[in-house]
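Re: weekly structure request thread

Next one in the queue (197 aa):
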Amino acid sequence: MDIIKSIEHEQMKSKIPYLKVGDTVKVHVRVKEGNRERIQVFEGIVIKKQGGGVNATFEAPSQTQMSTFDVDMNNPVAIYDYKPKGIFAKFSYYVLEFNKTSYIKRVIGVAGDHIKIESGKVYLNGQELNEPYLRDGIKTEQKVFTDIIVPENCVFVMGDNRPQSMDSRSFGCIPLEKVESKVVIRFWPLNKFGKVK
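Done, posted below.
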């Protein structure tokens, strides 16, 4: 069972209501981030029933630009050092999500995977990664984290717009506790509305 399916399995309820296209759904999710806990509310309309996706949203790290002098290549984990102080600041950040940035990226590797970026290509556990979701001619450039083993309880993520993407190549692997959700539907741009592949 892969890591994303195991997370989904842990969080699935045994009694799931029958939903049909057009139904309005409101879900309250208890999110634990270290010692902190908050309720995240999602509301939407069922557009289409479908399976899972491979994109994830996560809280942006405190440091998104790193240099090879700033990092420990034996522990390639993104740095999260912002901790709001006071009840109002915590409520604003964790519940209302003011001043909080989240990214949407594609999960490329999970704990134990060897990721290597070389000659514009991505290698996962020694095999060249087939990436049909990238536009033709896109090369994956090397940045800081380009030859690593993904640590336990982390994922390695990259954006599909590789030349402009701020991702694990720049700031390291994302701890699972910072992963907020899985992307299954794209709303914008409208000409690409629908299921994310």
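The chain has three helices and 13 strands. The longest helix spans residues 3-11.
Next request, please.
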